[in-house]
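Revision sheet: structure tokens.
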Amino acid sequence: MTLPVNKKYAPMEALPATDLPEGPEWQYEPKWDGFRCLAFRDGEQIDLESKSGKPLTRYFPELAETLVALKAKKFVLDGEIVIPADGNLSFDELLMRIHPAASRVLKLSKEHPSVFIVFDLLVDEKGKSLVKLPLEKRRRELERFAKAYFDKNSSISLSPVTDDLAVARKWFQMGVGLDGIVAKRKDLAYQSGERTGMQKIKKQRTADCVVGGFRYLEKKPLVGSLLLGLYNDEGLLDHVGFSSSIQADERLALTKKLEKMIKPPGFTGKAPGGLSRWSTKHSMEWQPLDPKLVAEVQFDHFTGGRFRHGTKFLRWRPEKAPEDCTMKQVKRENKSALNLL
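Predicted:
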């Protein structure tokens, strides 16, 4: 494929930050909870690429069809693929798209079509590269491009932007679908593959969880990870994730403490899964515990009945009753980020 320009771009990335930066040089955008994607078009050819440069086109055929139907025959767009489901954005639906057979992907694409939320224009419809322009000018070009080529009812949307800090803080508090806020310098060119000129402020939440079991380290008889549980509506303890952020100098004492509490079944609802193709028998073995210990952990996302990533252990909560550690803690405010589109 001959691209509108002679190279493909690595996406510009953001540095993690703890607070929103202030000043007239900054603009703020929602940080969408989806798959980062660069969309390349040259004539009838569409290429969708992930942040790491891996092809995404086959997983989102409906998006490729939408892009090829645009009147603009050349462009490079930077954005995020999301999937609306049941009035919110569903990361689980995104994960279901990866790896299955083409027939399965096609079925899923019809049941829950994706939406491409665009926040930058790197190459315009004339094949002109805009990456050397400051963000402020690129945004104006993107808004012009969107007005000319995006159908208001299509599955392509323009990501909102504001320079009002109060609005950005309001977005930060929104419910399902947003991962936080991205702050971008208006005066900088597109820093392909770099982490300059952008900051991401992610939501970090905490939950009190029952420790329903643990796993040993791969090669040492010391605790490697805590298996976390929350009580569901039926009063059963569901396994919801793990935390391996244990201080090295605390592992021995903690191991001795946990070994005295080994008592099946540990989890009375959903239990830790069995072997997978990436795991060994040893790495998946776990020890059930009498559900008496409560740990406070920090997490970013809770989807599909579990923490999406490993959590960060914060502290023990001896004053907390295990039965009070319920799923209600991880339910989000019922305000969808779709309202911003």
